[in-house]
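Sequence, please.
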C-alpha cells in the first residue's frame, strides 16, 4: 500500500509548541553544585510535563547536563522533542549566559 504524499507531509509538518528552558547564572552566595543540581532536577520535571524522558530518551543530553552539574562544563543548546496529550513539544535548553539565535527562541520558561 502506498501512502499518499499529502498525508505523509501532514504528519511531518505537525506544529510544535516550543518551550525554551534557561539554566540561570548562579550567585556566589550559593553552593554552586547543589544549586545546579536543583535547577537540573526542576528541568527534568518540566521536561516530563512535555513528554520528554531525559535520561531514557536523550541519554547524551542527560550526560551533558550531568557534566554541567558536576564540573560546571558549559554546553551548546540542546533540542529535545516530546509528545504529550496529543501535543508536540520542541524543548530547547541552554545556559543563560549563552546568546541564542532566533531559531532557538520560543516561549520563555525560566526553570
Amino acid at each position: 500500500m502506498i501512502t499518499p504524499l499529502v498525508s505523509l507531509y501532514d504528519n511531518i509538518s505537525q506544529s510544535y509548541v516550543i518551550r525554551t528552558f534557561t539554566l540561570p547564572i548562579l550567585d556566589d552566595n550559593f553552593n554552586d553544585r547543589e544549586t545546579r543540581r536543583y535547577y537540573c532536577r526542576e528541568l527534568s520535571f518540566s521536561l516530563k510535563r512535555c513528554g520528554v524522558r531525559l535520561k531514557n530518551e536523550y541519554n547524551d543530553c542527560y550526560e551533558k547536563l550531568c557534566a554541567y552539574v558536576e564540573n560546571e562544563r558549559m554546553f551548546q543548546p540542546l533540542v529535545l522533542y516530546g509528545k504529550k496529550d496529543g501535543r508536540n513539544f520542541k524543548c530547547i535548553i541552554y545556559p543563560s549566559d549563552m546568546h541564542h539565535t532566533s531559531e532557538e527562541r520560543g516561549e520563555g520558561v525560566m526553570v
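Residues 55 and 62 are 6 Å apart (CA to CA).
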